[in-house]
């Protein structure tokens, strides 16, 4: 997928595409038809403005200033000032990955022709992506009805001011544009508003977070399967029939995957497990992972709409030759979905924690206390319980909602907000904490498998076990576990675990 | 709909059906085929138990006691004790409406034949509904993996112990069964577990809450439309094209309804509104109501699965002649959906509050301060702002998640929970607060319409205005507004507003 | 204490006094000096108003209407309208206990002479308390900068409108005043504001909640001591020296009380406990109860200030013959304290839950599973774990803060609030849930003591054990435990447990 | 204060001392008496261990392993392993400032002689501070009953393993010790536990946060005073008498300071302000800042106890020649205090936001919209409202409690936690956000002062105004405001504003 090209037309951008462009360096290309739409939209805007129709952000101001006329000779100055006055975001700076995702998310929706932006700016978005000119964007400051406080910093770079990363090196935008032989944009009417007024800060990085969650659930399924082998868990709850009588889509899928990972495992041998029913954290994992999957599907649906429809206000209607005022900058559905998925992940986290605690409990596993290789001499996985549970406590805290806490602003005109960028950000922190938590579970599972001398592992779990053991050897004596934890985290974050297991089960 | 009959077969129970049976006194009937399934399932259970297969809750104990054998001669005693030991719920008592919903939700899933319960108990559920024998169920005590602590109280009534309401009169279960000429149940194997182990406490009342939310959004759409008329709001944001370029299903629907309510309104006359763009609370209401609709659709989907599939563990598989252990009591998807919708309603609430505040603001409406009929002599709607915002503060508080806060119980076997009944309950409180908040908005809207002397109202809003004015006269001087607020609440809760408006627009 | 009289002078009202008047029917009396202060204050207000100084709420309107002049001949009408327009509160109605506490809290601060209210109204507060005329006050609607939306309903009753409870019977205020031979108040200048503008809804019921928390911690200490005996817990952590090296006041006190309760217990006998260290829930209870005590002391300090100082705005300064505008209606310190104590109680709750879970765990107690008297035949305290942990989940939810969620109201003049009444209310729900949770722990402790045949109990714990066993017999077979739980709750709520134990240790 | 020396004796360490050592490079010295106590304590531990008394963490294991004997010849190995096994913390790494605070907090409590640690380790803490050898400590992983997962990394460095910063350069601990001519520690009995088992991760950085909050409130008082001048606010609410009738300590102090800052201001001139009462955000700021001060005093009290008393378990009692098991690692009071202060700061934040919004509102200030210097050409402070309110939304989110969310760990022995380090951390994030929020208010206040041409400023506010204007010129045309915001933040964070104002009012 790396190095591949993503073709944009405003209608077919996928979460996977965002990931490829943002993280894997894929180039972007705009279809000719889309560019023609952009041009037609621009022409219409001029046509209407000349006919004296008042157009918000074009020949009228924005926000509370919507009552102020902007006359043609001040278009450039007005729009430059608009960019300046909207540069109000604060640290930290968005990662370059996120900046790419933002540029892409905005670029794609411009292609629908609802914005009326000048075509050269559209091309600039594409060039910035393809030349790797990444404007420095402080990421805090948006309340989510359009991420105007942050996206303005892109406009700043486009007119050759502010700073960017160019091929990874920080420099002034002016220098980067020169080096890449690109001309700074001269802003025309509505261009300022067109650049700042979009939810791309929520949409781009949000799409990456959804990609990460998708991977995380898959990882969680794998590690759960590995834990079953470490624990010598009862596989009865994986019975496909159980999922037929209760047709929740997500859990059916998770259970199918877990069965695939465990194909060929010793767990399926008769008489292996004698407990009638394991603890719920082991018995219900597919159900819980399924609940996260269901929630994710919901958010993905709304993200796909966001990535491929206009959130412009005003909105240019090419076919009707009208510009209408609307509220299409509203992304509350997206914020709600992310809030739900944060709570869902909090369940997934607690579930993993309980499985890990159980793996350390000799009474349940029949193995040693804290999976020590030597009761007398090695302390092993005791204190580490504080690590993953403290990370879970953070997740619980992050899972509190933040979307509905806002002020009435701009002279009481802007009396709604949804804080979607912050909601996305906190979700992304939840995901990162989960990489540690699942990583520690994986460490436990591998240790339990070793202590149990379980050799006949499943098709997928065997691959998982091997990935772990390549990096983290069996704990034969006490050592600095922070190092092991970091390695486990990296195996997950780098997708090494995922890729190796995917490969194994597809053989 | 009242007095109608609902036919049950385990597969087609709708939220509307639950509402009809629980609140409108509809009778229930079980299909013959379903009863045959129940009987077959019971027969299979006996067959397997006699073959010495260990069956959780049948010839083995439940929970941590799952390792304990239960021999046949103690079936009755064991199951009675099980009912007793599970009677641990605490006040308040569930309303009779909720009790009916609970009985119905459990009855319907029994018909799938996955339980193995004795057929006489199935009939008893039906009789209790049709004879209006409503066991007293303390409603707190469930953590949501099966509402065993509460549903046990139904079992108590079925064996002729504890208390019930019979045709609205409280009496002992014994007396009620006698009066209705019903025989108390003699419990057999697995019957205790079959009665207690279900999520009916979440499902039944949860379905009613979803019905209420459905009505509430419709009400919110109506009152928003009325506010537009009181405010003389700009109707541009209702333009259908705006919703075409951004295909979020809920907001398209809401905007369509609002247009229908406003059909024929003076707001559509040329030149009526001069503001280029109204405050967001007025401009984005359809979008926000749409977000709630989208969230609601998600929860309804999972509620329909819950109402029509087995959550039994163990689960009887008639076609395969097996009983399997599973985790089908997991209802986390449902809990997550309710959490999301609570947050969504918190947005809706704040939106309504802001609209009402705007209606009281002379600068925005061009009317008098606090909609007073006389600046000099009448204070009018000033302090009332504290009422609805304080109710909103409660909603914000209730919208905090509660589903993932649980303990590890039963000797660390039950280390997951989802608290679905509590999540449903807090959602229901949010809904009730919203009836006040929307009611107060309606009072403001009607007052603004009167002050504005706006006579040409929409088809639906005219009906809404009339319903309000029939109960609450124009505020011509200060009076005890608590009384008006309660009336406005009643108009909404009783569905009078809804029904009259539905009728009006369907003419 | 019942039937005693509380003398009021504005400066010495204690939380205990509030409890006596509100719940034990104590009468109130106003000192002569205080009444003279009230009269002087009223005279000053007239003097200033005649001199044309603008006085908020006197010869000027309130809230956003503060720019409106009120002329003398409309004083009565204006103030009556003010009462009407502030009657905007909604259900539920405050309990009669709470109403008494509210009346008392307001009455006492009036005596400081900062209000300028007419003396007859002061007397009316006293009469309402002494004649048991309790205005019906809907308790929701205040955002806490003065509880104006609710206290207005007192004013309504004073002018002979609205409803009251008179000696427990609901009737119109008019009738009650007649029956008690009291004349309705004729409102004069500033009287309306004086009645509504106070934080008495937070202060009165808040004081009762603090009284309840005080009792609850004492109860928790007792039940913890009982649990130690049921568990055969290690008493080493009670060593007074441990509390000397770490001088946190609350924990020193709790540990001293627990030692007193356990005086003479078998636990102090050599060799009784063999575990080097018990689980933290048993080892650290005094520390945790101490943390609650410390937090409580903080809140009590601010409550005492609230009960005995003026929160009037404007504020009459008798000695300087001035009326000043101020923000003394701010009670945020109080709200913060209640928020903290809610979180503190959430810790106490979880601690009790863990102790109870441990009592049901044979591995820790050496007794039977779930404290059953017969492993084979009685299920005992298994499912009940769901009851107390679900109540804890509610407490966790209630412990989320609500004080800082408010709107900007009254034309953006009232842009701060603290929601103190709601914060008090949710704290009171936490307290009530804890009565169940501690009650269930007490049931477990007594059962464990019986199973252990521990006969030599402590001086205080023996009394506690006896109170419990008088109401709730040993669980020799399964029975409806909801009944037992309610009894345990009642023992705590009625203070029977507290009183008997206090008596026992004071002998 | 910089470069000064702090003398340690275990009993008199102040928050100010922690700040000096951690941030200003002050050296530390241990009193001779204190070292003698340390030596005596060590001797006692050996004496008791030789007498075969079981001592937790000495000749017995820790946590669930407390039943395991540790024999003398394995002391070194056992303690090294203990350090290894406790090295389980994860990123991010604590700042060097925080590491110094941690070292100091632990060092001081060691001097009380309750630990029994070997004296060479005590000296090593001192040397690490004085030589600036700062162990790398990953800061996440503690649940707050002793920060064992993190403090272990100090032990690692002391034995010459892991990494440190030495004079700001990262290197191996081995190399740093060599360069500083220090010998690695050879661990003896109990040393491992003594190093890890302390709450220094909460106490040290927590003390720094309290110092920051202290400064922040002072800053808030100053900026509020400046805002009053920008707004031309009514100074009536500063009347000292208002604070006499309601003796809340914090607000009395804040109002006194604000009066001092405004000494000589034009605001005191007769006739300057004509509004009878300003919005609450302006009227009640001293009250609100006072509430934060009151809350801070509470936490400081418990922090001082924490810094100067033993939190060891077991605890060596020198005078009684005993070692007792206890729960002195409990720091829940501290956690509760931090939770309260977080909520208090959330109020302060919202208050500042509302003041800033008011400054941008022409209707309230009589100045231009968004404080623009030119209505026609400059947009000015419009979008910036999103910046500070989005930061407030984060604060609201952070203010949710986290202290009571924990698991039951270590074989159900460790069933309580308080998460104090995380609670401290989130409080520190709140503080940092507030620096931006107050900084933006200061920008507004200065702009309003300029637009109003208010020349006669107060003694303190004049200094504040000048500090701001030295860095941030008057906004005469639109510019990149992110740069201005960062400058405003820096003025506050660097304490430049504070110091200049302190100087000014003390002249």
Automatic annotation (TrEMBL), chains A, B, C, D:
Highest taxon of the lineage: Bacteria
Protein name: Aromatic amino acid lyase
InterPro entries: Aromatic_Lyase (IPR001106), Fumarase/histidase_N (IPR024083), L-Aspartase-like (IPR008948)
Gene3D superfamilies in the cross-refs: Fumarase/aspartase (Central domain) (1.20.200.10), Fumarase/aspartase (N-terminal domain) (1.10.275.10)
GO molecular function: ammonia-lyase activity
CDD domains linked to this entry: PAL-HAL (cd00332)
Annotated PANTHER family: HISTIDINE AMMONIA-LYASE (PTHR10362)
């Amino acid at each position: 997928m790396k190095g591949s090209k993503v073709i944009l037309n405003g209608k077919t951008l996928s979460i996977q595409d965002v990931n490829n462009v943002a993280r894997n360096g894929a180039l972007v290309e705009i279809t000719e038809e889309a560019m023609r739409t952009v041009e037609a939209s621009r022409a219409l805007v001029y046509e209407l403005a000349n006919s004296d129709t008042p157009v918000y952000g074009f020949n009228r101001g924005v926000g509370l200033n919507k009552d102020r006329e902007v006359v043609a000779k001040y278009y450039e100055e007005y729009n430059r000032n608009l960019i300046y006055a909207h540069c109000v975001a604060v640290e930290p700076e968005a990662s370059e990955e996120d900046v790419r995702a933002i540029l892409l998310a905005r670029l794609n929706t411009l292609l629908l022709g609802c914005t009326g932006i000048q075509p050269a700016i559209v091309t600039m978005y594409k060039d910035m992506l393809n030349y790797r000119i990444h404007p420095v964007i402080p990421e805090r400051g948006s309340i989510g009805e359009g991420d105007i406080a942050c996206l303005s910093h892109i406009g700043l770079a486009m007119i050759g001011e502010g700073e960017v990363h160019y091929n990874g090196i920080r420099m002034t935008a002016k220098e980067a544009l020169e080096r890449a032989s690109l001309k700074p944009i001269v802003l025309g009417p509505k261009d300022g508003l067109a650049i700042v007024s979009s939810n791309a800060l929520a949409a781009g990085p949000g799409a990456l977070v959804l990609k990460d969650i998708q991977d995380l659930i898959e990882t969680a399924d794998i590690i759960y399967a590995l834990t079953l082998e470490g624990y010598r868990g009862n596989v009865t709850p994986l019975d496909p029939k159980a999922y037929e009588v209760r047709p929740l889509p997500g859990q059916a899928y998770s259970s199918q995957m877990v069965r695939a990972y465990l194909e060929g495992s010793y767990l399926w041998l008769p008489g292996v497990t004698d407990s009638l029913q394991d603890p719920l954290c082991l018995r219900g994992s597919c159900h819980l992972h399924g609940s996260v999957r269901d929630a994710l599907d919901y958010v993905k649906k709304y993200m796909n709409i966001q990535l491929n429809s206009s959130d412009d206000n005003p909105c240019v209607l090419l076919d009707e030759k009208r510009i209408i005022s609307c509220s299409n900058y509203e992304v509350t559905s997206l914020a709600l979905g992310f809030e739900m998925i944060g709570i869902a992940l909090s369940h997934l986290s607690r579930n993993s924690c309980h499985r890990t605690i159980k793996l350390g409990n000799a009474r349940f596993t029949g193995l040693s206390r804290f999976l020590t290789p030597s009761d007398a001499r090695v302390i092993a996985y005791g204190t580490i319980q504080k690590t993953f549970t403290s990370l879970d406590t953070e997740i619980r805290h992050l899972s509190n909602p933040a979307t509905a806490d806002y002020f009435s602003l701009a002279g009481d005109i802007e009396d709604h907000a949804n804080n979607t960028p912050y909601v996305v950000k906190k979700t992304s922190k939840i995901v990162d904490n989960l990489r540690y938590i699942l990583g520690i579970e994986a460490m436990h599972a591998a240790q339990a498998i070793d202590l149990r001398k379980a050799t006949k592992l499943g098709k997928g779990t065997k691959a998982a076990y091997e990935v772990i053991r390549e990096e983290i050897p069996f704990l034969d004596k006490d050592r600095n576990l922070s190092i092991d934890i970091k390695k486990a985290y990296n195996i997950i974050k780098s997708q090494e675990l995922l890729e190796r297991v995917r490969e194994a089960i597809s053989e």
